[in-house]
């Protein structure tokens, strides 16, 4: 019989607070490596210079202990909660307290408004946008993914027909990047969801942004699709900040799930090179 492990809500608050600050101040190593690789291979002068400026920006942020981007994002929090864990306190309240603490103590820009139409800043970057999954075990894994909206606004979803096939998926992804142009501050990172329902496919696309850029899809079919899409996107010529060149996308990930026989939902969650995420296991 499993033993229930107790975790205080205060521990969750402290963890989320630290993750908010860490994610905003330092890019994941896989993203840094992808950017550096692009600098090494980009041969269009304006594009290469722009990529070097992006690298310089990361160096300055690290030396001054400041955010890598002025848009410190909406706090997207992913939680994998072990079924053998009991949380002493209110989980969502604890997460929001952590976001409030992290964004205040870290002097991070607060960008969340109380109402989508009537606006009005909440002044503490809450509420967080929380996704929870119940998993086996007695631990909690927390991931904070601060999502800027210059790129989020360029994201799209399509309810394709099965007859559109794989070519329809490819064209939708390429069209999304073409329409985005320089708006999402390329080079971009893409999270692509395929399958599920209208709501699930967008969640898949967001989840895809959490996968490191140097990790391929475990299914060879979708790993090949990832490679093909990346190559096709980088032939579009948008380039860093829209200046041209062959570095429009640093990397992308495809996540899939079953769907209804009559449908083939596809979603593309667009992110800029500042694709931030930080995790901890409690």
Explain this structure.
This protein is an alpha/beta fold. It is about 40% helix and about 25% strand. The chain contains 8 helices and 10 strands. Strands 4-2-5-10 form a 4-stranded mixed sheet. The protein has a 4-stranded mixed sheet with strand order 6-9-7-8. α1 (about 10-25) runs parallel beside α4 (about 90-105) and α2 (about 30-40) runs antiparallel to α3. The longest helix is centred in the N-terminal third of the chain and has 20 residues, at about 45-65. The mean pLDDT is about 95.
Bin the strand percentage: 15-25%
Roughly how many Å is the radius of gyration? 19 Å
Mean pLDDT: 97
Order of strands across the widest beta sheet? 4-2-5-10
The geometry reads as globular
Major beta sheet summary: 4 strands, mixed
Count of DSSP helices? 8
Total strands: the figure is: 10
H and E string: EHHHEEHEEHEHEHHEEE
Category by helix and strand content:
alpha/beta
Distance between the termini: 22 Å
> Which runs of at least 5 residues are low in confidence (pLDDT < 50)?
none
Helix percentage: 25-40%
Task: Please supply descriptive tags for the structure shown above.
single chain, 282 residues, alpha/beta, four-stranded mixed beta sheet, 39% helix, 24% strand, globular
In short:
The chain is α/β, with parallel strands linked by helices and 282 residues long. The protein has helices at 9-25, 29-41, 45-64, 91-105, 149-152, 165-180, 198-208, 220-233, and strands at residues 5-8, 74-82, 85-88, 129-135, 140-147, 156-160, 188-196, 249-259, 264-271, 278-281.
């Amino acid at each position: 019989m499993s033993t229930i492990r107790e975790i205080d809500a205060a521990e969750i608050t402290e963890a989320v607070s630290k993750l908010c600050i860490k994610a905003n101040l330092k890019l994941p190593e896989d993203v840094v490596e992808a950017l550096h690789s692009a600098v090494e291979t980009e041969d269009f002068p304006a594009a290469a210079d722009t990529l070097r400026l992006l690298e310089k920006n990361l160096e300055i942020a690290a030396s001054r202990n400041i955010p890598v981007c002025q848009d410190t994002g909406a706090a997207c929090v992913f939680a994998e909660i072990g079924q053998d864990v009991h949380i002493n306190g209110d989980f969502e309240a604890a997460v929001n307290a952590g976001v409030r603490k992290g964004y205040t103590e870290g002097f991070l820009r607060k960008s969340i408004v109380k109402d989508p139409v009537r606006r009005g800043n909440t002044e503490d970057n809450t509420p967080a946008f929380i996704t929870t999954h119940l998993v086996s075990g007695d631990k909690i894994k927390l991931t904070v993914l601060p999502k800027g909206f210059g790129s989020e606004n360029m994201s799209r979803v399509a309810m394709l027909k099965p007859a559109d096939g794989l070519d329809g998926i490819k064209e939708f992804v390429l069209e999304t990047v073409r329409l985005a142009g320089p708006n999402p501050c390329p080079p971009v990172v893409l999270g692509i969801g395929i399958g599920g329902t209208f709501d699930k496919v967008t969640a898949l696309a967001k989840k895809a942004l959490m996968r490191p850029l140097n990790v391929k899809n475990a299914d060879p079919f979708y790993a090949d699709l990832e490679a093909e899409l990346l190559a096709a996107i980088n032939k579009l010529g948008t380039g860093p900040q829209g200046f041209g060149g062959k570095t429009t996308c640093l990397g992308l990930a495809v996540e899939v799930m079953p769907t209804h026989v009559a449908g083939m939902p596809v979603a593309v969650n667009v992110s800029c090179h500042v694709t931030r995420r930080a995790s901890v296991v409690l």
